[in-house]
TrEMBL record:
<dbReference type="InterPro" id="IPR014710">
    <property type="entry name" value="RmlC-like_jellyroll"/>
</dbReference>
<dbReference type="InterPro" id="IPR024203">
    <property type="entry name" value="Deoxy-glucuronate_isom_IolB"/>
</dbReference>
<dbReference type="GO" id="GO:0008880">
    <property type="term" value="F:glucuronate isomerase activity"/>
</dbReference>
<dbReference type="InterPro" id="IPR021120">
    <property type="entry name" value="KduI/IolB_isomerase"/>
</dbReference>
<dbReference type="InterPro" id="IPR011051">
    <property type="entry name" value="RmlC_Cupin_sf"/>
</dbReference>
<keyword id="KW-0413">Isomerase</keyword>
<protein>
    <submittedName>
        <fullName>5-deoxy-glucuronate isomerase</fullName>
    </submittedName>
</protein>
<dbReference type="GO" id="GO:0019310">
    <property type="term" value="P:inositol catabolic process"/>
</dbReference>
<dbReference type="Pfam" id="PF04962">
    <property type="entry name" value="KduI"/>
</dbReference>
Length: 265
């Protein structure tokens, strides 16, 4: 099974649909939608908690008994703004009404009802620069481990053209805390300009998994295990949204031992 999922639009506007069943794993779900202004999307209640990320556009969101109006601000993922998002605890139905054209990500993982549904506003999200030189990238922590949720971890990363990201290669596929955590992960990719591409490799120490992909706009890469660096091609800025979940809600990674030297030259 290829780890690369290309967009496949349907009548609802959904063009990515990752589930534990079709990914052949246990925890992470991801969907992406293009909604037209005035369109309504209904998501039934389930045993999954959700993080709805307004990647672009404005929407009214009903989640359970709560109504959140005019959620969103930026109109393109490459704007220098953090996104708006809504965390929805499991057991609550959701309705999204697009006020403008909307690019929506629906991130899901097992929920246990421990945390309230709420609007995640940009001022609650930490932003940071990581790396230096051609390893520089810009991170926005949408739903990190120090913010309440049962399973989900959600982060977005912008990488300038020609730079590397998720680098040096790291992994989080061993349930061996405090040294490493086990987290499945999806990468939802955008490119600017949109006709561009980037590269992502997913590989293990033993190379029993070793897949290198030319990734185009709106593709998703599955990371069930292994290291997973990204390289942005010259002339094309990279954006990706990461969704992670596993048995413990902690992100503890291990760098590839052959490449860790570059952190301490």
């Amino acid at each position: 099974m290829s780890l690369l999922r290309r967009p496949q639009p349907d009548a609802t506007g959904r063009y990515q649909h990752i589930t534990p069943d079709n990914a052949q794993w246990r925890y992470v779900g991801f969907a992406a939608y293009d909604l037209q202004a005035g369109q309504t999307l209904d998501l039934p209640a389930s045993d999954q908690e959700l993080c709805l990320v307004l990647l672009a556009g404005l929407a009214d969101i009903q989640a359970g008994e709560q109504q959140f109006n005019t959620v969103g601000e930026r109109m393109d993922v490459f704007e220098d703004l953090a996104p708006h998002a809504v965390y929805v605890k499991n057991g609550e139905a959701v309705q999204v009404k697009a006020n403008t054209d909307v690019e929506l990500a629906v991130c899901s993982a097992p929920g246990f009802g421990n945390h309230p549904t709420r609007w995640l506003k940009p001022e609650t999200m930490s932003r940071e620069q990581r790396g230096q030189g051609s390893n520089t990238r810009y991170v926005c922590n949408i739903l990190p481990q120090d913010q309440p949720a049962d399973s989900l971890l959600v982060v977005e990363v912008k990488t300038p053209a020609g730079n590397w990201s998720s680098y040096p290669p790291h992994k989080h596929d061993a349930d061996n805390l405090p040294h490493e955590s086990f987290l499945e992960e999806t990468y939802y990719h955008r490119l600017n300009p949109s006709q561009g591409f980037c590269f992502q490799r997913v590989f293990t120490d033993e190379l029993d998994l070793d897949e290198t992909m030319a990734v185009e706009d709106r593709c998703v890469v599955l990371v069930p295990r292994g290291y997973h660096p990204v390289a942005a091609a010259h002339g094309y800025d990279s954006y990706y949204l990461n969704v992670m979940a596993g048995p413990t809600r902690r992100w503890v990674f291990k760098n590839h031992p052959a490449h860790e030297w570059m952190l301490h030259p």
